[in-house]
Design brief:
mainly alpha, globular, 196 residues
């Protein structure tokens, strides 16, 4: 398993269609370290064209009969920031299966950078409004009052996409954060093509 783990980490640095099927198949490995390495590799290969075809297959596993595969698919789609899976993930948050609930909740947080816990109704209310917004807008909203963990994740993604934090620091006092958030809001208004 160590060989597969290291191989998957390497595969993430090889942006070729040929490596995608192997990465995707390992997303469903029972070894949590191997599945985690496959998620990291898949995220690194997100812009490889054939991965987009495989994402449809991964989404299909959310509706499958195997509960472990459903949970692993949910985790993978969260890592891939797959907004099309959000309605199904919201349904899964209300599952009677604890592993499914945990995986769906973790993925919804990762995609949205919001957190409504295991409250499927609250997630649905959020989605009713958020589905018309760019994901970048969700991340900018997360910079304000979200817990520190989500603020950090949101600014990491935004700054990676834009090449700057626009002066935002997740640990800064709220008034300082708000000044930076105003700059991010201005950027969103000026750049309707900007998204993450």
């Amino acid at each position: 398993d160590l060989t597969r783990y290291l191989g998957l980490l390497t595969a993430g640095h090889l942006p070729f269609d040929e490596v995608v099927p192997g990465v995707v198949s390992n997303l469903f490995d029972f070894d949590s370290d191997v599945a985690s390495a496959a998620r990291a590799a898949a995220a690194a290969l997100k812009h490889v064209p054939s991965l987009q075809t495989h994402i449809e297959v991964i989404r299909g596993e959310l509706m499958g009969a195997d509960r472990l595969k459903r949970s692993l698919a949910a985790r993978a789609l969260g890592t891939l920031r797959d907004r099309k899976s959000i309605p199904t993930l919201i349904d899964m948050v209300g599952s009677i299966d604890a592993m499914e609930r945990y995986s769906a909740h973790a993925s919804l947080k990762e995609i949205s950078r919001a957190d409504f816990g295991l409250d499927a109704s609250a997630w649905q209310l959020w989605w009713n409004e958020a589905q018309t917004q760019r994901r970048a807008e969700w991340l900018v909203l997360a910079l304000s009052e979200s817990p520190l963990e989500l603020r950090r994740s949101a600014i990491d993604e935004l700054s990676a996409a834009q090449g700057t934090t626009l002066g935002y620091h997740a640990h800064a006092p709220a008034p300082e954060r708000e000044e930076s958030i105003d700059r991010w809001m201005s950027l969103l208004a000026a750049r309707p093509d900007f998204d993450v």
